[in-house]
Design a protein that fits this description.
The protein is mostly helical and 102 residues long. Helix content is 61%, strand content 0%. It is built from 4 helices and no strands. The N and C termini lie far apart (55 Å).
Length: 102
C-alpha cells in the first residue's frame, strides 16, 4: 500500500504590526532599506527579534527583564544610526518603556 505524502505545515505568516515582533521587524526593515544595517546591527537585530517574540509569546515573570533587554538592544542599534528613522525607533522605544497594564 502506497503511503500518502505528508503535507508540509503552512508557511509562517509575518508577525502582525500590532505585535512587538511586528513593530520591531517593521523598524528593522526601514533600517535595512536605508542601508543602515552593518554586521553588528544585523546581529543585534536578530537578538531584538527573539526578544520581541518572547514578549509576544508571554515571558511570564521575566517580562520586565525581557522588555529591558529589548530596549537596551534597540538603544545599542540606535546609537550608531544616523538616518531620519530615528524618530520612529525612539517612538518604538517609548512604547516599550511604558508599563504593562492588564
Amino acid at each position: 500500500m502506497a503511503e500518502t505524502p505528508k503535507k508540509r505545515p503552512p508557511a509562517k505568516k509575518p508577525a502582525p504590526v500590532t505585535s512587538v515582533e511586528g513593530a520591531v521587524r517593521a523598524n528593522l526593515l526601514k533600517l535595512h532599506q536605508a542601508g543602515d544595517l552593518n554586521d553588528k546591527k544585523s546581529a543585534l537585530s536578530e537578538v531584538a527579534i527573539v526578544l520581541a517574540r518572547t514578549l509576544d509569546e508571554g515571558a511570564g515573570l521575566a517580562t520586565a527583564a525581557v522588555a529591558r533587554e529589548l530596549r537596551a538592544t534597540l538603544e545599542a542599534m540606535i546609537k550608531e544610526t544616523t538616518t531620519n528613522d530615528d524618530n520612529q525607533f525612539n517612538d518604538l522605544l517609548a512604547r516599550l518603556s511604558t508599563p504593562i497594564r492588564n
